[in-house]
Amino acid sequence: MDKNNKRIALVTGATGGLGTAMCEQLAKDGYHVVGNYRSKQKADEWMEAMKNNGFNIELFEGDVCSFDSMGAMVSSIEKEIGPIDILVNNAGITRDGRFAKMSLDDWNAVINTNLNSVFNVTRHVINGMIERQFGRIINISSVNGQRGQFGQTNYSAAKAGMHGFTKTLAMEVAKYGITVNTISPGYIGTDMVMAVPEKVREQIVAQIPMGRLGGTNEVAYLVSFLASDATSFVTGANYSINGGQHVY
Ligand code: CAA
C-alpha cells in the first residue's frame, strides 16, 4: 500500500503496447501504478504522453535481464512509494528465425528477457508479499508458448517456461494469500506483432476466427480482473485471450 492506502502495482516493460494499456487500466482501477523501463528517451516521451491522457505514472529504470538491477529498482520503489502488492511480469521481446539458423545471442536474449526476468523481478518481491499475506503475480505469456510457432523456438520455450513457473509458485505461496496466474495473449495489435512481415501477418490473422488482431485494452481488462479481490481463489491458471486462434 502507498501512503494513501492504495495498492501498488508494478508493470514491467511498461512503455510497450501491452504495458501501456495495463498501466492505464490499473490506474483507472484505483491502484498506484509504477512502471519499469529500460530506454530513458522512450520513458520521457511516454510519461509526457501519459500525463496528457490524465495518467500520472512513475517509471523506474532497470534491466529485467539483471537480478541486481531489479533488486535496486524494487528497493527504490519500496523506499519512494511503498511495497509492491501486484506484479505484472510483462517485459518481453522477440528475435524470430528458424532454429537451424538461430544465433546463441538470439536464443539468450529472448530467454533472459522473457523468462529469466520473471525470476529477477519476482524473487525480490515475493518475501514481502509473504510477510504481508497478500499478493497478485500476473505473468504475461503467449499463445505461442501454449502451441508453438514456426520461427519462435526461443520465444515459445520462454513463454511455456513462464507458465511452468506460475504453476509451481502458485502452489508454494497459495497459503499466504498470494495468487500467481498466467495470461496467454494471441496476436494483439502491438509494435511487436506489426513487426511481423505483412504477408505473414495477414496469413496469421486469417487463422483467427474473430478475423482481427486483439486490442491491448482487451488484455488489460484481464490483467485488471486477475489483480482484483474478486479472483482470490484463482491461482495457477492460464487464461487464453486469442480470438479463438488456439482452442484446446
Ligand atoms: N509454416 C511452415 N513453413 C514456414 C512457415 C510456417 N508458418 N513460415 C515460414 N516457413 C518456411 C517458408 O515457406 C520457407 O520455406 P522454403 O525455404 O522451403 O521455401 C522457409 O520457412 C523460410 O525460412 P527462412 O529461414 O528463409 O526465414 P524467413 O526469412 O522467411 O522468415 C520467419 C521466417 C522468421 C519464421 C518469418 O516467417 C516470420 O517472421 N514469421 C512469423 C513468426 C511469428 O508469428 N512471430 C510472432 C511475433 S509476435 C509475438 O510473438 C507476440 C505473441 O506472443 C503472439
Structure description:
This protein has 248 residues and is an alpha/beta fold. The protein has one domain (8-236): 3-Layer(aba) Sandwich (Rossmann fold). The protein has nine helices and seven strands; from the N terminus they run βαβαβαβαβααβαααβ. The mean pLDDT is 97. It binds acetoacetyl-coenzyme A (CAA).
Short description, anyone?
The protein has 248 residues and is of the alpha/beta class.
List the strand order in the largest sheet. 3-2-1-4-5-6-7
Q: Name the ligand types.
A: acetoacetyl-coenzyme A
CATH class: Alpha Beta
Question: With helices defined by DSSP (H or I, 4 residues minimum), what is the helix count?
Answer: 9
**How does CATH name the architecture?**
3-Layer(aba) Sandwich
Helix content: 40-55%
Going by CATH, what is the homologous superfamily?
Answer: NAD(P)-binding Rossmann-like Domain
Q: State the secondary-structure class.
A: alpha/beta
The name CATH uses for the topology is Rossmann fold
Averaged pLDDT, please?
97
Describe the sheet with the most strands: 7 strands, parallel
Domains (count): 1
Total beta strand runs: 7
